[in-house]
Design goal:
It comes from Nocardioides islandensis. InterPro entries: RNA_pol_sigma-70-like, RNA_pol_sigma-70_dom, RNA_pol_sigma70_r4_t2, RNA_pol_sigma_r2, RNA_pol_sigma_r3/r4-like, WH-like_DNA-bd_sf. One of its GO terms (molecular function) is sigma factor activity. The protein is mainly α. It folds into two domains: about 1-95, RNA polymerase sigma factor, region 2, helix turn helix motif (Rna Polymerase Sigma Factor, Chain: A, Orthogonal Bundle); about 95-180, Arc Repressor Mutant, subunit A (Orthogonal Bundle), CATH 1.10.10.10. Helix content is about 70%, strand content about 0%. The protein contains seven helices and no strands. It is globular, with a radius of gyration of 21 Å. The N and C termini lie far apart (about 80 Å).
Amino acid sequence: MSDAARRQRFEAVAPALVEPLRRYLARRTDAATADDVLAETLLVCWRRLDDLPEEALPWAYGVARNCLANARRGVRRQERLASRIAVVDPPTATTPGPGEDGDPELAEALAGLRDEDAELLRLWAWEQLTPAEIGTVLGVSANAVSIRLLRAKEKLKKSLETRKDELAAGHEETNGGRRR
């Protein structure tokens, strides 16, 4: 493929990828890292343009997921090095993840799930991907995604129901500070 044809194909595909990828990354990391990872993801898409399938977004989500994992590994390496070089202040708390600002029960329930289950649910609910598209992102079959998604939904449902029951039980036990 000529350079002009490559450029033309990338310019046709990239605009449809940018905003969904930006939202995907913003839900998983801080703004600066999201911007860096988005740039890295687009660079990988450009370099591997010949590998880019017709349905580019799920493939690009997979690339973004890998780039984010690389960025996180890089941060961990930097932190280990900094701790060896000098005594530093403890790292600041991480920024709230998706759902933590709006629905604390949902955030708590998601935090209680395995990382793989939580990510699967986020891809399904927040990114609105189909099992086949999620399979592309995660590198597994659509059938495996469907089974895992069903199990993850059940785990989340049970976790939310348990929290709801615990809250209800807590309200029943209190009597507004009065004794009966």
